[in-house]
């Protein structure tokens, strides 16, 4: 199997750690911001169709978010496996793992797409979608479901690129896709000339079309060997044993991300119980906070890649030092982001909402309460990223389950229902859960995790926790 080109990519196992971390993290953060641009572009054009169209897109978001979360977990596995072999300079195995990761994610996404397409009406009935928007929501999400293989394919492409330290190409492709989506949205939504207007389904079709372009470009780059990988069609012949190991590594990450998605839905349900004003304030505030933690997610993904490459290069000391840099950088970075959000809470809320003073005032208070604890979210995300890079996706999953389902949701329920805080207990639950989860994550990191089987070498005795390896 031909070795990949290394003219644009080199292992991140030498040189200043902080520079390598930021070199990876900044393009990842920018790419994630561009991904949120899809939602803003859709909201801009769909908003001109009326309230029913906006509601149809909104009710479909949690379901699609959950399905994408399932696929994202396996992209984490692909990234870690590729990074480990790339750090070890086992270039033929890098290509083999990349091809098999694509085969795995395509197989799983096809099954999920078919099942979700036919289950779409049932899913909408389960969440209580009314008859006024049911047909619109069903058409919108069925188109998105058919595009899941393309969505998963591009997620895997980005993950494989991260694994070899190449993060700029996915950024450029994201930028191109966003620009194309802005042009295709009005064309497919409203129609022009021979192209019929499809309404909200047109917005979904525009998204799927840009995803198709992204996947084609990504696959072409990998087949040509210009992106740090050099795939061949022969390499896509299924390797069942390797795909099974990748599945075992990726499944906990899928549960991890799905638990976050479900946690978001449960918090929304709690907010719903306090009426429209509280629900609207929660919706606006949570959207702003989600944007605020994007830098932490970028640092976490960069940390995973650096840790995996350094462990592959037999540099556990450097891997642990990388985790320390990630934790410190994320804490300080999110501290600054939180301060900026706190100071600009009012104009930021006004950007998303105009004309409702009660909702705006409550949303500003929510944002200001929760923004101060964003830095602790950065700590947890960095520790989770380090665990994933070490192959301990189960540990990262447990941190998420504990922070979401053992800490935040019960705290939110108790504070809002059994204290004088009332619905503001929902706001303070973010602070309490973030601080407690960060403390738990730090203790986990400092004490070291229990040995985990190495997903890359099933014959190896064990893969110890980062803290134990450094010792």
UniProtKB/TrEMBL annotation:
Transmembrane feature ranges = 21-41, 53-82, 102-120, 140-160, 172-192, 198-223, 261-282, 288-313, 325-345, 394-415, 427-446
Intracellular or extracellular location(s): Cell membrane
Q: How does it sit in the membrane?
A: Multi-pass membrane protein
Main localization, broad class: membrane
- What's a single GO BP term from this record? monoatomic ion transport
Q: What positions belong to coiled-coil segments? A: none
Gene Ontology molecular-function annotations: antiporter activity; xenobiotic transmembrane transporter activity
Instruction: Please tell me whether the keyword Transmembrane helix is annotated for this protein.
Output: yes
Question: Which UniProt keywords are given for this protein, alphabetically ordered?
Answer: Antiport, Cell membrane, Ion transport, Membrane, Transmembrane, Transmembrane helix, Transport
Q: Which domain of life is it from?
A: Bacteria
Query: What GO cellular component is one of the record's annotations?
Result: plasma membrane
**PANTHER family for this protein:** FMN_FAD EXPORTER YEEO-RELATED, MULTIDRUG RESISTANCE PROTEIN NORM-RELATED
Recorded protein name is Multidrug-efflux transporter
Its taxonomic placement starts with: Bacteria, Pseudomonadati, Bacteroidota, Cytophagia, Cytophagales
């Amino acid at each position: 199997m031909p070795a990949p080109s290394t003219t644009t990519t080199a292992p991140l196992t030498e040189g200043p750690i902080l520079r390598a971390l930021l070199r990876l993290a900044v393009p990842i953060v920018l790419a994630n911001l561009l991904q949120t641009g899809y939602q803003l572009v859709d909201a801009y054009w769909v908003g001109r169709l009326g309230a029913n169209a906006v509601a149809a897109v909104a009710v479909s978001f949690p379901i699609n978010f959950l399905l994408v979360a399932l696929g994202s977990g396996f992209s984490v596995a692909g990234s870690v496996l590729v990074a480990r072999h790339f750090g070890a300079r086992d270039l033929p195995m890098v290509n083999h793992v990349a091809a098999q990761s694509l085969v795995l994610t395509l197989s799983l996404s096809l099954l999920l797409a078919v099942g979700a397409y036919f289950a779409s009406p049932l899913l909408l009935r389960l969440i209580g979608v009314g008859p006024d928007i049911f047909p619109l929501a069903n058409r919108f999400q069925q188109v998105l479901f058919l595009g899941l293989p393309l969505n998963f394919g591009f997620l895997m492409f980005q993950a494989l690129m991260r694994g070899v330290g190449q993060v700029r190409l996915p950024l450029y492709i994201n930028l191109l896709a966003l620009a194309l989506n802005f042009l295709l949205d009005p064309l497919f939504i409203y129609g022009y000339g021979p192209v019929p207007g499809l309404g909200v389904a047109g917005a979904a079709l525009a998204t799927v079309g840009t995803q198709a372009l992204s996947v084609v470009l990504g696959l072409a780059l990998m087949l040509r060997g210009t992106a740090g990988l050099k795939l061949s069609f022969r390499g896509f012949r299924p390797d069942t044993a390797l795909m099974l190991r990748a599945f075992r590594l990726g499944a906990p990450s899928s549960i991890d991300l799905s638990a976050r998605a479900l946690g978001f839905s449960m918090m929304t349900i709690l907010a719903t119980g306090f009426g429209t004003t509280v629900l609207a304030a929660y919706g606006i505030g949570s959207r702003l906070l989600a944007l605020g933690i994007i830098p932490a997610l970028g640092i976490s993904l960069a940390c995973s890649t650096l840790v995996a490459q350094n462990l592959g290069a037999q540099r556990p000391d450097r891997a642990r030092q990388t985790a320390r840099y990630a934790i410190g950088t994320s804490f300080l970075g999110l501290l600054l982001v939180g301060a900026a959000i706190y100071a600009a809470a009012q104009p930021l809320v006004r950007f998303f909402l105009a004309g409702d003073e009660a909702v705006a005032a409550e949303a500003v208070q929510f944002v200001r309460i929760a923004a101060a604890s964003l830095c602790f979210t950065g700590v947890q995300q960095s520790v989770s990223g380090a665990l994933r890079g070490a192959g301990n996706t189960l540990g990262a999953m447990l941190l998420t389950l504990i922070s979401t389902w053992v800490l935040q949701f019960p705290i939110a329920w108790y504070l809002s229902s059994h204290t004088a805080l009332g619905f503001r207990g929902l706001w303070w639950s973010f602070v309490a859960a973030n601080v407690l989860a960060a403390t738990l994550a730090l203790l986990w990191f400092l004490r070291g995790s229990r040995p985990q089987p190495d997903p890359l070498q099933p014959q190896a005795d064990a893969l110890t926790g980062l803290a134990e390896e450094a010792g």
